[in-house]
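Q: C-alpha cells for this one, please.
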Amino acid sequence: MNGWIDQALWCLDRRQATVLITVAWIQGSAPREAGAKMLVSASHQWLTIGGGHLEWKAAQFARARLSAGEGADRWIEALPLGPALGQCCGGMVHLLFERLRESDRGWLEALRAGQQSPAGCVREVGLGETGVAPWVRVWVPDETDAAFHEHSAQPDRLLRPDPVRGCLTLRETVRPDPLHVVIFGAGHVGQALVHILGTLPCRVTWVDARDELFPDAVPANVMIEATDTPEAVIDEAPPDSCFLVMTHDHALDQRLCEQLLRRDDVAYFGLIGSQTKRRKFEHRFRARGIAPERVARIVCPIGEPGIEGKQPAVIAVAVAAQLLRLRAERSRQVAAPVRAAEAAH
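A: Here is the predicted structure, written as C-alpha cells:
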C-alpha cells in the first residue's frame, strides 16, 4: 500500500522533521518484504517494517540523526537480525533512511500522481559517492523499460550498485494495488468490510444510493460512489475487478448480478445470502436464459469456508480472507513465469 506518500506529505505540511525508512534488501528470512516502509519523527511513528527489535533499532537510528541535525540525508544501515538484534528470523535486512525536507515535496507529489497510472511509476534514489551528488527522481515507465521489471525478477532486492554512476541505487515501482474491490451496499456488512479492507493492500469502490449511510471519513484506499445507477459502476470497473453484491434490496441484487453476468473479465463475484437465496436466483437466471456455467461463477454464500457466523464483523473477516487468498493466488501466477525464466538460467 502507498499510504506512506500521503503521510510523508502530511508531515511536510506541518513542518514535522521526519525520516522515511525503507526495507531495501533482504538476505534470508525477515519480518517484512522489500519495499515496506515506516516514517519516524522525534515523537511519533507511522506504519511498520516488522516490529520488534528491528523496528526499535531503526527508529533509534532515525531519531539520532534528527537530533544531531547533521550528516547525510540518505544512508544505509545493514542489520543482521540474529546476532545483532536477537530476532528469530536470522536474516540480514538493509534499510534505507531518508531525512525528508521541503525539497522532497516535488518527487512525493509526482509519486502521488504517478501511482494512479495502471503502469505505476518508478522511484529511483541514488546515494551518491565521492564526486556524485545524491538524487531522487520519479518517472512513468513504458513496458519496455528495464527498470520497470527489474525488481520483479529479484523481489527481495531493491538496492543495487549503479554501474554507470558507481554508487548504490534503490529503485522501486509504485503502482496501484492490482486487487480492485467494488462493494455494492453500505449496510452493516458493507461498513464492517470496508473497515477491514481499508487496512489491506487493495483499492475499494463503495457504492450505494443512500448517501447518508456513508461515514464522514473513509480510508485512503476507499472511494465512495453515491449513485442511483450502480449498473454504470459495473460497466466502468477495470478488468479483473472483484465485486460484492450486498445491498438492502433483493431486486437490486438481482439486477446487479445480471449486469455482472454479462462480463467475462470478473476476478471474483460474491453475492451475500444463503444457499436458499442462491437457489432462487439460479432459478430466475435460468428462466432468463442465462447459461448455467455463467451462474456458477457466483460465490454465494460469500466468505472463506470454515469461518462461520452471521455477525457483520465475522462475515467481513471471512470475505476479506477469501479476497486475500485470491490476491495471493494471482501474485503466484504473475511470479511463475519470472521464476521459470530464472530456473532456466
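A few notes: The mean pLDDT is 88. The chain is about 35% helix and 25% strand.
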